[in-house]
Amino acid sequence: MVLFDVGIISVGVALLLAPVLAEYAKLRHKADKGFAWLAVAGVFFLFTGTFTTATTLASYVQEPTWGTIASIFEVIGWLLALIGTIFVGYEILLEK
User: Fold this and answer.
1) Are the C-beta atoms of 37 and 5 separated by less than 8 Å?
2) Of 20, 31, 87, 96, which alpha carbon lies 20 to 30 A from 41's?
3) Which residue ranges of the chain lie beneath pLDDT 70?
């Protein structure tokens, strides 16, 4: 039995580590808004990875709907990561 969707959880952890490593490298102050977007994307990916373990909740919701809800959160997380990456690139390379 797989407890978590390991790939999605790994992406979430990596996105949550990005602001921490940027703070360590003294880059976070240059693109604080972008790293905030990346951290929020990491939280969304962590939440998406927990859908496989919520079997009690999944029993109350029909299977196609449960998978669709997980996919929606995954897409939102991806969009937030995309926006955060664009912000970081813009703020570090062009603005400052």
Assistant:
1) no
2) 96
3) 1-5, 55-56, 58, 63, 95-96
